[in-house]
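REQUEST ID: PR-0412
SUBMITTED BY: lab tech R.K.
PRIORITY: routine
TASK: structure prediction, single protein chain
INPUT:
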Amino acid sequence: ALPYHHLLSKKSGLFRSIHINNVRSAPVLERCLCMHVLKVDQLTKTFPQKKGRFTAVDSISFALGEGEILGLLGPNGAGKTTTIQMLLGTLTSTQGSITYFDKNFFKHRSEIMQKVSFASAYINFPHRLTIQENLDVYARLYGLNTKTRKERIQKFLTFFEMWKMRSKTISSLSAGQKTRVMLAKAFLAHPQVVLLDEPTASLDPDIAEEVLTFIRQQQKDYNVSILFTSHNMAEVAKVCDRVLFLQKGKIVANDTPEHLAKSVSIARVELMVGDGLKRTQAVAEELKCETEVSDRSITIAIDERKISDLLITLAKRGVEYSQISIQTPTLEDYFIQKSKEQKKDRV
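STATUS: complete
OUTPUT:
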């Protein structure tokens, strides 16, 4: 049987109509007290092609700790979505194992999926139902009683400033509003594990910031474990405890955002040059550094260990600058570096 919450997945093509009056309540299960709520071992997925098979996910192994927010990053085609589909059971793995709460996923799927939720920009709600009706359907599927359903729906919609809109149909909502309903659905039953695929997609920056705060609060209040994919590196660095980086279907990094950023030695030095812009460019070229120039401002990408050499040389050449800022490497720098490496490998 398919996981209840995934019946409305646009991406999987598994859309089904649901009659509210005929929904049976699912049993509410006790929370598992496992140290690792999810373990993946040698998970692989290949697809047939004209010549041989294409490996989308290549023998990856990792674990998601209880109460941990784990980022799953990588360029397009790295295998992120394929991995999540296998973790949901909507795509069968070629080989490898998936274990939730110390139980084999393939043998105990129905039981496990009562404690796992999923949210994605690809979710498609029944568009003729109202916001409140949609959330009530999911709450019933997870076995919540009438009182709890009403309280939680009001709580989440109030947080996302949508309580007054609860009688609006899904078809009348903007993309950002649909995303907020999707997130409310994901945490409605207080799941033990949530898989979030691009949860802030199509949201304005201020709303996206609220979503990150909401996710962290859910982790703090309910010790929920979250697998989080995003292309916004600043978001990942802010919300994730640890990051997995996928490249060509393989895990090439598994560390904290801070440690991954520090593994990139390139920093950015921005100077507001009053006199000597061309001399500054010449010095950067001598040090084999990339530069970006905008009016009198120049940004130099340079190895952190060479910053002092740069500044000493600029002083010797008589370069005058009124402002200087030094930006240390970020998670985005790591992402860019790894993406460039992948492109070079393709050439």
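NOTES: The radius of gyration is 24 Å.
REVIEWED BY: pending
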